[in-house]
Each structure stands twice: as structure tokens, then as C-alpha cells.
Predict the 3D structure of the following.
Amino acid sequence: MTVDATVRPDGSPLLVEDLTVRYPGRREPSIAAVGVTVAAGERVGVAGRTGAGKSTLALAAAGFIPRVVKAKVGGRVIVEGQDAATAAAGALLGKVGIVFATPANQLSASKLTVREELAFGLENLGVPRDEMDARIDETLARLSIGHLADREPFELSGGEQQRVAIASIVAMGTTVLVLDEPTAQLDPAGTVSVADLLDDLARAGSAILCAEHDPSVLGRMDRCVVLDQGRTIAFDVPGGALAKAQAAGGSPAPTLVRLAHAAGLRPSLAFDEASIAAALETTARVATPTPPKAAAGQTLPPPSSGWTPSHERAPVRVEFENLIHRYPSGIEAVRGVSLIIEPGEAVAILGQNGSGKTTLVKHLDGLLRPASGHVLLDGRPTDERSIAELAAVVGFVFQNPDEQLFERSVEREVSFGPRNLKVPPADIAARVTDSLEAVGLTGQRMTNPYDLDLTQRKLVALAGILAMDPAVLVLDEPTTGQDPDGVLRVGAVVEAMRASGRSVIAITHDMEFAAVRFGRIVVMRDGMVVADGPPEAVFAPANHDLLASTGLTPPPAARIAARMGLDIVALDADRLLAAIGR
Amino acid sequence: MLGLMLLAAFLLPPVVLPILTIAILAAAWSAGLLRPLVRAMRIPALLLVSILVVNSLFFPAAKDILASFGPFAIMREGLTFGLISAGRVLVAFLASVTFLFTTLADDLLETLISRGASHRIAFVVLSAVQLVPRMRSRAGSILEAQQARGLSLEGSFVRRIRSLVPLIGPVLLGALVDARERTFALEARGFGARPGRTAYRIVADPPIDRWLRLLILVAAVLIVLVALGILAR
């Protein structure tokens, strides 16, 4: 054990100094000369595009590099005064811990109750049996998850599992907590619950380093480091860092940050909605002319490709007729839904997990059959058509790409669908080219899909469906885990499909994506449609209570507009600023 | 207890089979497990019936005909042998299922660990048991995703075999992707990092259990001795 007091001048539990990490077989380092300190009680966010080095920084900060994940390391990581590079196996246990994105993978999978799950780490540390209960109870109480104590870990929701995973690390006495996109796979309610828990932990004195895409989580951090191609391009309070990052060629800044910037607020207030609304109100009334393009970008970059679906095909009208679906368990997941979706319509279906969204859309390609009612494609009931037949009309992109990718190259993977549809080989080649261009993966034709990261694998899965040239495109959570650029790409595909007369139906938790890219919003609760209309109507202030009852909040710009008491329902920063003459 | 039942069923004279069956069913009933036990009987039912039928009709060197239908005849020796065999299988099955129903895998392994078994192996067994439902739901999603891409599960034998590749591929690859994250998560929880592991779950071992174990052991020895013909005469 090497303890060196001189490396902790400020006593911060986590010090990352001039860190460079290069993986074996790579020419370029994944992160270069990154420096971060996290004080006790501080939350530091790590932002940046997919592949910018966020996970590498997280793994290194948790002491996994180079001990568990082999890599060439320059610089130092000091956890509680101990150099992670020279620490013996187990020496950092109880000091630093890490939680990753997939909730179920964070559990030991060998314990029958949450209480025992928390005990797992203590058992490994060799904590005497008679001390365990006290430590477990203290952790459960501190993180407000006492009500989960006797539940079965695998029965919990994703948000609950993530909180249990964090609690299991904290119960070990850990003072430095590292998280790698902990909310990427959670619904809005789960995301808020995890962010609240991080607040509690920080208040209790933990040092927290959290890699994230979600602005609502990043905005709650004390400071934020933004990486781009492995280098630090900004390190400041979240509002300042994300604005600077955009100016430095990083991802577009979140809506609230752009609004705060336009209102001339100082960066530390960039996520304070009341201040933003107040500041915009004053500046709107004064109506001082401002320079057209400020540093923190005014317009979103144009859609990434001019792709349009290349094949002419007849438009298809979708009808749900009083649809009811009952699972064998007796649960009625869809309870009487009637919807008509015209060709050329883009519909976003919103609602909490368990509200029946996925059950509803699975009827479109016959994966589920109605208990009563009908689903009609162009007036013909789907009941009498096979899944394979429906697959030629309805393209369904599932949430998890790893549940369908199996070929050895991206090209073969994307051609799998058209081959099943018996498309002539020459056409297949053209379709593969077009759909890879649509998702921006033209350069990866020959790559094995599993050499790409998760967000790119999601795009491969999307391209695989586009190549089937569906009349109706169904997307299940297309933006989860995507960085802002990926969200733009998916949005461009939605628009291209719609413009060519196809319909798009997307299930999403991303309110801003839904509001900006979809002309129609359907909100579901308990298996029924509770709101249906254009985003301006659904996100109107009069509906905010209804939305809250479904666990949803309107997109940020609409929230600010509502606070300002504006008549218009602004869907994004541009429209809000335009509406108040900025 | 399971061992005792198996010894008794296979070593003692067949007259004990009905007694054993009734004893197990009574024990299951007292634990409120009679209904699931009877439902589980669907699994070996076909096997039991076929043991009975095949032996009754085709027992070699049987002479006593009980009844005959055309070319088939039920032989007394065959019927007896079939009944005994089926009875033994029945007792073995009932005893095993009752054991599984009443014993938590967790408790069993925790006890084995405390008696010196490797906690790593115990962990592998436990997590495998818990991951089965997860794998099953995953396999269901994969089937749906590939069918939605036009994968047809019908057609000739060769076609159906070929359609397995897109189904098994994601199961294996996905398991590998998961394995990396799961390994890291276990590493973060210090699994296997230090010697001197402790245990949270305490498996109750009241004195009556200890007496019962002794009794079972004595009974087992007696059965073996009877079977070997040492005590019977």
C-alpha cells in the first residue's frame, strides 16, 4: 500500500491528474491529458459525444484501468490518497465504486432480497455478521430505499435496480462513487429518482463523478467536464461547460443552456428555470436588439443527410379499432384504444413504463394479437396475416439492438431483412447503401457490429429496418443512450420517412425529441389514450397537470414558456426565442 | 431425507412403495405443497404409463396370461414388474420434487459453503439459476425482433435449422456483452478480492433438525442392512 500525503494538497477524495489512457492495439489515446478533481460532497458530470472518452475516464477513476482493463496509462488517479495504478487488488474496495448503465447487470444475481444484495459487498469485504444489519439499515435509510429491503432484486424496475446497485456500493463504506451513464436505460421517473439519490449522497459527503448524456442530470451537477476526442474542451459549472463545449465544436448545448445564454444569465443559473423565465421576460419587454449569432449557437445543425427512401411504395393507413390486449397473466395492458394514423404522419407515443405503449405497437406486425378489437393496415385486419407478411409493410426497430444483431459485418446485418423479403440482390445492394447513408455509417460497411459502441449498434439496427423499405416505421425508444448528434440523425430519418409519405410511430421518453420531430403526440396511461393532438396542444399549460399524472413533464422550452405565461407553446429554444422577438 | 426415500424405494421389498408414496404426499400436504406436487406429476406421467404398458405386454419369459386382446396379452409377471418399476420411479420423482420445493437453493449453498465448499462455485450455480428467467425473456425478445425482420420459422427442415442462426447468435453475443458489465459490477463489489469472506444469511439449524439427521442416518444404515439380507433373517 502506497500512501502519499503530498498528492492530496486539497484533500479531495478523487484526483485525476494529467491522465492519458491508450488501449492496446489503438494508435490514438482514448483520453489525453485529462485532469479532474472531485471534492467531498461534490458532483462532477462528464459530458461529451459517444466515443469521446467518458467511459474510459470513469473506468480509470474507479481504479479499473489498468488493473482490470489493460491499457497504457500516463498521469495519475489518486483515490483517498492512494495511487490507483499501484494499489493492490482489493485495496481500493470500500473507497471507490462504479455503477454502469444496464440496471440488471449491476446486481450480483445471486441474492434473493435487496437486503442480501447489499450484504453481498460486505461479505466480500469480510465484515463480521453482527455489524452487517446496522450498515445495511443505515444505507437503506440514507438513500430512502428502505421500502425495497425485502423485495426480490430482479423484480424491481430499472430505476429501483440502479438505486439498489448504488446503495450496494455505498454500503461498503465507499466515499468516491463513479457512474457511467446510470440513467441511459431509465424512464423519466427512474432518471429523477437516481438524480435525487445522487443529491442525497453528495449532501452526506460522497464525491461523485457521473458520465451522462441527459441534460436534466448534468444540470444538477456542481461542475461538468466536457470531453471531445479524448480531450477536455470545457470544465466549468454545467451551464458554462455545455455552452463552451458547443462553441468549441462539441455537441449542441441543451435547450435550457441556450435559453439562459440568450437571456444573458450567468452560467451558474443556466438550469434554473425560474431565473431563465424571469430573465427572458425582462429582455423580451425591453426588446433590445441582439447580435444574430451568439457564441452559444442559435440554430441546430442541419439534418445529417439528405437521404430519402429510394423506393416508391403505396402509402398505408393504420387503424386501431377499440383494441384490447390481455396478457396470459390476466393483466389488461391495452384497454380500448382507437387511433387512426394517416400516411405521412409522424406520431410519438408517450407514457410511463407499463402504460401499454409497447403492447399497443406490437400489434402492428402481429407479434401480439388483439383480445378484442382490430388493427387494420389499409383497411385489412392484421389478424389474418402472418408476422412475416406484415414485416414487409411494418418495420419495427426494437429498443435493444443486441437482441437482433448477429452477422459478421454491418453490410450483411443490414441486408438480412431485405433478403428475408426476397428482394432482388441488385436492389438489396442499393438499399443497404442508402440506409447506411441515412444513419451515417457508410464508412463502417465491413465492420463487425459488435466492434461498434451501443449507440452505433442502435443505428445499425435502424438501418437494417430502413433497408426493408417499410410503409410504416415503428421505433421503440430510438434515442436512449444517443448523444445529441445521434438524436439529430434519428430525427432526420423520421422526417425523411414522413416526407416520402410513410408513417412513423415512435415510443419515446424524450419529450423534446417528440415535440420537435413529431406532428402528433399520443399520451397513454393505464392502457388508454389520455391525450392526442399536435405537440402545441398536448404540451399546452392546461395539460401540464394531466402530463404530470402520467409521470411526464413537458419539454424544457414549453416549461419556460408556461412560466412566462406566454400564449404560444414553444417546443424548442429557437421557437421560444422567435416568439419573444429575439 | 431424499436419500433415505431413494434407498427405501429401490432396496426394500416393493410392499413399502405405496407407504412411501402416501408418506411423501402427506408430508407435502402438511407443507401446503400437495397441489403443485400433483401438478408436477404431469411430467413423469407418460413415462410411468409406458413403463407399465411395455412391461405388461412384453415382459420376457412371462407365462401367466391375465387377459388378451388379439395378438396382445397382459402377463402377470410383466404387470407386477411394471408396477414395481413405475412405483420406484414415482417415489423417486415425488421425493426429488418435494426436496426442490422445500429447499431454497440459497440455503443449501450457504450451508455447503459454511462446510467448506467454494463460494465461487456456489455463486456460479446461484447466478445461473437466477439468470435463467432473464435469458428466457431475452430469447423471447430476440425471436420477436427477428420475426419482425421477416425471419420465417416455417418451411423445410434445412430452412428451419438455418433460421436458428439469427436466433442463437444474439443470445450468445448479447451474453458476452452482458458478461463484461457483470464482471465489472462484481469487481466493484469486491467479489473474490479478499480472503476471509463472511456470510450474511444464517441458515437455521435447530436441535430437532440435528436429531432428525441422526435418525435418517440410522434408518439408512438399517435399510442397507435389510437389503443385504443381514437383518432380515
Summary: Chain A touches chain B through 66 residues (CB under 8 Å).
